[in-house]
Amino acid sequence: MRNRGRVLVVDDETSFLAPVSEHLQSQGFDTLTASSGAAALELAQAQHIDVVVTDLRMPGMDGLELLTALKQVDPLVQVVVLTGQAAIESAVEAMRRGAYDYVAKPIRLGDIEAVVRRAMENAVLSRQNRAYREMQRQHRVRIATDIVASSQAMRQILQQAEGFAKTDLPVLIDGETGTGKEVIAEFIHANGERRDLPLTVLDCGSLAENLVDSELFGHEKGAFTGAVDARPGMLEVADGGTLLLDEIGELPLAVQARLLRFLENGTFRRVGGRVEKAVDVRVLAATNRQLDQDVTTGRFREDLYHRLVVFRLTVPPLRERTEDIQPLAETFRDRVCGTRHTVLPFAASAQAALKAHSWPGNVRELLHTVERACFAARLTGATEINLPHLGLPGAHPGAGVDPAMLSLREAEKRHVDIVLKRCDGNRKRAAEVLGVSERQLYRLIQSTDGAQATSA
């Protein structure tokens, strides 16, 4: 039988301990017993306990004193107290001190089992909630430490975002694809009053037009073909927290009208529903479109645009904040390469190429480039990330990279590769041109991760 959790039964009467512990054990609980408050406290200090069932009246440390001590050891332990009819006031005092429930004597085993089951459920939920809050705290720390803002432009964005986080008003985050709009939304959420609840994301651009309404507002059973059950939408899922509407510029006009109504009065109806529902949600929106131009062309509602643009953040493209490129690349490299291996440095030529590239895909393109470079460098056994590992189009000396800034290893490698290509891969001819023996050429190729070549 699956273990349902650990229960400690405490009573100075052994005739009570045995049948209660045996019954709870038969129902799948891991059961411990103690004949005094002091013995119970010693057990609780030594091992994990979920639920404690204790008599109130015991010699030495009584039930109330044990309850107080147990809560100091583990605030989430659930305590059920047993009391006689004449001691109901003590049971009420126990509840005031944090007991989960009390059971009046005479006691039936079924009653104790039912209360212990409920207390165990509460213990599990309390521990899960604590773990979730800790996970959220760590996530907030990660967001704060992972955002790279070496450039003045990004430092200003984060400063504004931190200010916007203190309000509950909508924020429109725009910028090119891959600039990190969702990361900024996470930063706003993590620094706001709703940070202990989730940030829910709805990607409006990935949904078919006929599904957006249902995904956002939910639907009732039978609202349309295939709606076999009622289903809450993202607004209900995000209740109490924050909802990010990613690519909001892709919303159909009909859904825009319903969203505007929700933003204005906080209520909505599910698709096919008649009941007005109210939720408490902060809405953030992100887009790579020029919404003001879409308003002019009639593609986006003007009233919704003004409702969303109370606060606006425009995340600059990577090419306009070149100071962030190398720190971002190193952050990604540490995350990708450093998980199980020694972190590889970027060669000077690779650093120059990273800075010279225009990054049309912005931060997302940089991330994928670094991932590819780490894999390529490891595959070839390189000791640093060189220019070819990046795989950037046109990344060679003369294409934005100063040849004078190459490392000796990189310059040697490039020269060997060029000679090999000019000699059609013939190592003997290449060795003659380079003024070395074929054995020396082979070692050069191996030491610099040279290109494949054929022997004459």
Low-pLDDT stretches are 397-405, 449-456
- Total helices: the number is 19
What is the rounded Rg? 33 Å
Q: What's the number of extended β-strand segments?
A: 14
Distance between the termini: 73 Å
Q: What is the CATH topology classification name of the largest domain?
A: Rossmann fold
For the largest beta sheet, what order do the strands appear in spatially?
2-1-3-4-5
Going by CATH, the architecture of the largest domain would be: 3-Layer(aba) Sandwich
Determine the fraction of residues in helical runs and give it as a percent range: 40-55%
| Helix-strand makeup class | alpha/beta
Shape: flat
What is the level 1 CATH name of the largest domain?
A: Alpha Beta
- Percent strand equals 5-15%
